[in-house]
Amino acid sequence: MVQKYQSPVRVYKHPFELIMAAYERRFPTCPLIPMFVDSDTVNEFKSEDGAIHVIERRCKLDIDAPRLLKKIAGVDYVYFVQKNSLNSRERTLHIEAHNETFSNRVIITEHCCYTVHPENEDWTCFEQSASLDIKSFFGFESTVEKIAMKQYTSNIKKGKEIIEYYLRQLEEEGITFVPRWTPPSIAPSSETSSLCKKQAASLALVVPDAAQAEGLGSEALSSPSGPPEPVAGTPDDKLDADYIKRYLGDLTPLQESCLIRLRQWLQETHKGKIPKDEHILRFLRARDFNIDKAREIMCQSLTWRKQHQVDYILETWSPPQVLQDYYAGGWHHHDKDGRPLYVLRLGQMDTKGLVRALGEEALLRYVLSINEEGLRRCEENTKVFGRPISSWTCLVDLEGLNMRHLWRPGVKALLRIIEVVEANYPETLGRLLILRAPRVFPVLWTLVSPFIDDNTRRKFLIYAGNDYQGPGGLLDYIDKEIIPDFLSGECMCEVPEGGLVPKSLYRTAEELENEDLRLWTETIYQSASVFKGAPHEILIQIVDASSVITWDFDVCKGDIVFNIYHSKRSPQPPKKDSLGAHSITSPGGNNVQLIDRVWQLGRDYSMVESPLICKEGESVQGSHVTRWPGFYILQWRFHSMPACAATNLPRVDDVLASLQVSSHKCKVMYYTEVIGSEDFRGSMTSLESSHSGFSQLSAATTSSSQSQSSSMISRSPKHQLGLLRPAASVPSRACVCRTAKPSPLGWRQVTAKLSAALQEDV
């Protein structure tokens, strides 16, 4: 597997020329990097005017690896080739490096770039990227990869100090300014020419034209990237190192790289606003910074947020009066770390009465609104306290908890709420303080704890009786001035006291079911089921030619084929497929078939777009300009896996895909709209759609393009915040993004024990 690294933008509040002067002092060797043994100049080129200076060096490195591994490899030193290209006219330095040793077994590449800050020409920006691909290494691939990543990370950290060290050295020598490059005079006299040569020679001691050996390789040389300093800003599509430290916290170099790479993937594969950096970072932390796993759960969450319009819940939904009166929870100042503090008096809350009066969906929606408010408060506290705050503290008072709270439907609702919150709001709970836990609490904990993530459970602090008042109790986490009055504190808490919900507010099971269905179907999207041999079809009647049909749908389950047909005659009234025939249990699902079986393609109706195969988890938006009036049919059809040739074995991808589609059933969530040509915002000759691949097994993304007669199809993920309306957002180009699974690695038994021993040594 290829390991990649991408640094944030690091900014130095020093001119480019002074940075280059400090930069060059690392050659031919650098005492700050013990593994950098020596370097020799292989090639050098300088333009006549001195603006361009290209130098190629061969660098000798002493890698800190186990002696046994060096003996097996048969080398004591590793060599890298580094090419520095300095353009004094443009004030840029590009550094490219690759390994020379074991280049047929290991491929290491690195690229570094120094440029002038876009908003301040007296500042310098630095970026670095690298990749490591170990194809084979005597059976020790995993060990070598760990050694490389370990040393590269440590050298990146050390590299932050290098520029600062040499800048101080220059200052001690009285060098605080280096003039910029200027073009030489056209016809200098002999005296002037001699004087220029002397000045150039002396200046070379201060500002060498060659750049420094910044990158040297993924295993080796670090990037000198000075200490973080406050900056005015960097381009919107890049993350600044100081911004990360200020708003996201202290991250390791590899964690920074994961955040930047996942963010770049979102920028490259969808059109529109991407999720906030704090949101992306939460999903990465929830999966220990495994990019593929984090991308999978984040994409699933984005689809869920869109389906239920969670982004608008604070503006469009108001909790019923019953919740406002009897839900014993609310926000209450903040803890000592600046986290927003949420107080829940669960023991005083009538969970059974709330479920009977409101239903499970209303309670879930209210909890979602609490979480959305928590995200908003975290952003506010980050600005107020001047440090990153990405989670909140929850204080749960269990006084009054009894067997009534263990009512089975109430526990079921609680478990579902926990499941939804765990999946869509990871790493938002900073600490959970459970106070005055009664004897019945272990029963509730036994039921609930298996549904809580291990990382989340570690944040739980449980106090029985009045233990919270002693050492290690509440005062360690919350200031005395804001401890609620019902916990013997001095602060009046405005959280409702709860109490029993009057039975007169209870509703029947049928009323609750209809209410639950209404809550989650208050959306412009419709749900449909697709079966093998039973496609789902919708009819759109077009009166005016050149109208625009737009669509937006998510493939929630299975793989489907999307088609668009045109017919001059109206189909018969839709036939709904029997629910019992295919065991449909979803109340929102339906299956409608419009095309009569006696109709013939090409005679009764025609295909106006090429079929589009959509995989499970993908989200598709598109547009089609109608050429003729009449009836247009949008069809979602079950996609069957193609039969393999008799001489070929089935692919692993095909087998896994076939296992994922059970009972020959697919499910889609869709929205369509017809827009007049004069109202469509976009090019009528270059309509495009975006199609995002949220594969559950994403590992690599490749791009290609395909064009169609009246619309173009592209695949890219959609943004999280806000609804992406197809008619309002037209991408500038078409691309198809696919995901592929990595092949499993094989291990050699003969070297297994040696490899394990080496890993322990590492």
From TrEMBL:
The subunit field of the Swiss-Prot or TrEMBL record says: Interacts with RIGI (via tandem CARD domain); the interaction is direct. Interacts (via GOLD domain) with SLC18A3; the interaction is direct. Interacts with SLC5A7 (via GOLD domain); the interaction is direct.
Positions of the UniProt region annotated as Disordered: 216-236, 698-718
- What does the protein in this record do? May play a role in innate immunity by inhibiting the antiviral RIG-I signaling pathway. In this pathway, functions as a negative regulator of RIGI, the cytoplasmic sensor of viral nucleic acids. Prevents the interaction of RIGI with MAVS/IPS1, an important step in signal propagation. May also regulate the SLC18A3 and SLC5A7 cholinergic transporters.
Picking any one GO molecular function of the record gives:
RIG-I binding
Under SUPFAM superfamilies, the record lists:
CRAL/TRIO domain, CRAL/TRIO N-terminal domain, Supernatant protein factor (SPF), C-terminal domain
Locate the PRELI/MSF1 domain: which residues?
A: 3-175
Principal localization? cytoplasm
Q: Which residues cross the membrane?
A: none
Q: What is the protein name for this chain?
A: SEC14-like protein 1
Query: What is the species listed in this Swiss-Prot or TrEMBL entry?
Result: Callorhinus ursinus
GO BP annotations, alphabetical order: innate immune response; negative regulation of RIG-I signaling pathway
Keyword Phosphoprotein among record annotations? yes
The record's GO CC annotations read: cytosol; Golgi apparatus
**Entries under InterPro entries matching the protein:** CRAL-TRIO_dom (IPR001251), CRAL-TRIO_dom_sf (IPR036865), CRAL/TRIO_N_dom (IPR011074), CRAL/TRIO_N_dom_sf (IPR036273), GOLD_dom (IPR009038), GOLD_dom_sf (IPR036598), PRELI/MSF1_dom (IPR006797), SEC14/CRAL-TRIO_domain (IPR051064)
- Glycoprotein: is it a keyword of this entry? no
Segments of skewed composition (Low complexity): 698-711
Cite the SMART domains for this sequence: CRAL_TRIO_N, SEC14
Q: Where in the cell is it found?
A: Cytoplasm; Golgi apparatus
Q: Where on the tree of life does the source sit, at the highest rank?
A: Eukaryota
Key words, A-Z: Cytoplasm, Golgi apparatus, Immunity, Innate immunity, Phosphoprotein, Signal transduction inhibitor
Tell me the name of the encoding gene. SEC14L1
| Domain named CRAL-TRIO: residues | 319-495
Q: Name one Pfam family in it.
A: CRAL_TRIO_N
Q: Which residues form the GOLD domain?
A: 521-674
